[in-house]
Amino acid sequence: MPKQRGKSEQELKRKKKFRRPSKLILIVVEGQETEYNYFSDLKQDLKLPTTTIKVVSGSGGSCIDIVKNAIKLCEANQRDNQKKGKPRYDEVFCLFDGDRPEYKQAIMDAHRYSVYKIKPILSIPCFEFWFLLHYRYTSSPFENYKQVIAQLNKEFNKVGIEDYDKSKSGYYGLLKPQLDQAIANAKKLEGAACTNPLTQVHDIVIYLQVQKGFSG
Predict the structure, then answer these.
(1) 21-215: which CATH topology?
(2) Residues 51, 215 contacting (CB under 8 angstroms)
(3) pTM for the whole thing?
């Protein structure tokens, strides 16, 4: 029986050549509930073998505090890179709501630290508007969080889902069947240059979906 040949050196080099480099992505969210749970579940669902996603809670605070937290994490990451050779963040996303007056300052702060590639992800008036877009498109302005939740509960109740509870997890999986619709609705608002309501959450989702495509 002929001896089984292992992979040639040329084959191993070819495989190494086409292996995509790993990426490190940081997502800083406001609290430890809705946004944190959503992106943690998204991370698990995508199972990206060549992408490491770190979801960090900003532990409440203002939009400015969220950006400051991201900057501190980026500075620590840079020190680790220089001293220990650890990988640097390829992308950094900061999520915050536009129902707070300081959100514009937070966006400017993020842009000042372009060296860290910090990208603000804004939702007006709140992150839960992204959930609402999974069920319907609307460009009607909202005054506050409560108005969004009232509309979201109407949509939930139509399909037999209990009223929204911020402390509950599992909303990513619940909404996943309508994810493409939410992306399309968010893009439609973007194309209409709508400022209230709006959400940029789809930018992160699409970015991570692209990484999934890269990883095969």
Answers:
(1) Rossmann fold (3.40.50)
(2) yes
(3) 0.87
* Concatenated DSSP letters of the chain: -PPPP---HHHHHHHHHHPPPPEEEEEEESSSSHHHHHHHHHHHHH--TTEEEEEEE--S--HHHHHHHHHHHHHHHHHHHHHH-PPPPSEEEEEEETTSTTHHHHHHHHHHTGGGTEEEEEEES-THHHHHTTT-------SSHHHHHHHHHHHHHHTTPPPP-TT---HHHHHGGGHHHHHHHHHHHHHTT--SSEE-HHHHHHHHHHHHHHH-
Question: So where are the chain's domains?
Answer: 21-215
- Chain length of the chain: 216
Pair 26, 91: CB distance under 8 Å: yes
pLDDT digits (tens, 9 = 90+) for 107-135: 999 999 888 989 999 999 999 999 999 99
* φ, ψ dihedrals at 18, nearest 5°: -95, 5
> Peptide bond preceding 120: is omega within 30 degrees of 0, i.e. cis?
no
User: For residues 94 and 70, what is the distance between their CA atoms, to the nearest angstrom?
Assistant: 7
The pLDDT of residue 9 is 58
